[in-house]
Amino acid sequence: MIKHLCKVVLLLSFISLTGCASLSVEPWVKPYERQNLADPIMRLSRHPIANMHVAHVLEAREAARGAEGTGGGGCGCN
Q: How far apart are CA 9 and CA 15, in angstroms?
């Protein structure tokens, strides 16, 4: 029983390893599809002024923890 189980595990691991080795690494995004991702609508930050304000608020609120990489008291005082 144990020998049979070992053979099955060995066979499955061999199949899975050879299956991964036979795949060639290709980019998921083709060169002709990159223009769709470069569209401004795909950006996470669509409004730069609002994003600067949110970053400032987070920096002032979370400065004691170091969320944005700056140090401070966390009270918003400069």
A: 10
